[in-house]
Amino acid sequence: MSELVTGEAVALELRPARLPSRALAVLLDLAVAVAVYVAVTVALMASTSSLDVAAQTALSIATFVLVLVGGPIAVETLSHGRSLGKMACGLRVVRDDGGPIRFRHSLVRGLIGVIEILMTLGVVACVASLVSARGRRLGDVFAGTLVVRERVPFSSAGFMPPPPPWLAGRFSGLDLSAVPDDLWLAVRQYLARMGQLDPRVGWAMAERLAADVAARTGAPMPREVPPPAYLAAVLQERQAREARRAFGGAPVPAAQPPAPVAPPSTALPPAAPPGGRPEVPRDVPSEGRSGTGFVPPA
After folding, report:
1. In the chain, which stretches have pLDDT less than 50?
2. CA neighbours closer than 13 Å in the CB half-sphere of residue 210
3. CA separation (Å) from 245 to 173, 179, 238, 240, 255?
4. CA torsion angle for 110, 114, 116, 121 (degrees, to 10)?
5. What are the Cα distances from residue 128, in Å, to 18, 29, 112, 148?
6. Rg of the Cα trace of the chain?
7. Which end of the chain has the smaller Cβ count within 10 Å, N or C?
8. Whether the model pTM is above 0.70
9. 126 touches 23 (CB < 8 A)
10. How many angstroms separate the CA atoms of 40 and 49, rounded?
């Protein structure tokens, strides 16, 4: 995984594409481009046979530049980094901050790709990808881009467990403004990976993080709440506040425990008189209510 930080200070975990998948995508793109180039060249030769040699040479150079250089640039720009070969291999070209590429990124990658892929038969690109920690070729380095995998196997390592239901709304009154962002990031990373940690190490880490968060909030952590559950509940409360601040929603009241429900009475209803409905007393108040004389319709 490669952790990128966007302009909004959001950490993205992306999986850079390695050399075999990138080479296969480039071969597929070159096969399509060469097929189109051969078809266009044959059509031009048949339609411009009456021209002189200089004009035919100029048309051949223009066809080469437009099809083998301009074609990939246009496809990557319009598809936001997904050429035919990359689409087949599940790859995409993105910026260094994880955003979609623009025309200037595709232009730089295409122009440098002519040298390191077409003119050197891909030797320079292979060497640069092997040397780079994230598998980038020279075109990616100069353009500020990165080729990442879109289709990755599902893993439960990034799943953050929700807090227990009995902790819902319990920490709605905490002051979370003093908790720094790096501590929130540490809590998030711990909750996402606590299933992979040793139980003793994970518990000690949860106690340390919970103590740090409690010290920043100024309220002690309840003793009956386990540290992982405390961290999950506090993080959920922070996310709920951020969502309300972002979307302008009304504050959500703290969850109250359900009121005890009285068991149903086992007394039998009064017997109905012959040929009529059971008589309902109008002057007898119900439990907890005053007698108003109102009788609900049948």
Report:
1. 1-12, 154-158, 250-296, 298
2. 20
3. 16, 17, 11, 9, 20
4. 130
5. 12, 20, 12, 16
6. 34
7. C
8. no
9. yes
10. 14
pLDDT tens column, 104-150? 999 999 999 989 998 888 899 999 999 988 889 999 999 999 898 88
Contact 145, 109 (CB under 8 A): yes
The pLDDT value given to residue 51: 80
CA 137 to the chain's CA centroid: 26
Say how far apart CA 239 and CA 160 lie, in whole Å: 13
User: Cβ atoms within 10 A of the Cβ of 149, count?
Assistant: 17
CA–CA distances in Å: residue 229 to residues 134, 167, 189, 207: 36, 8, 15, 11
Look at the chain and count its residues: 298
Q: With b meaning 16 or more CB within 10 Å and e meaning fewer, what string describes 251-273?
A: eeeeeeeeeeeeeeeeeeeeeee
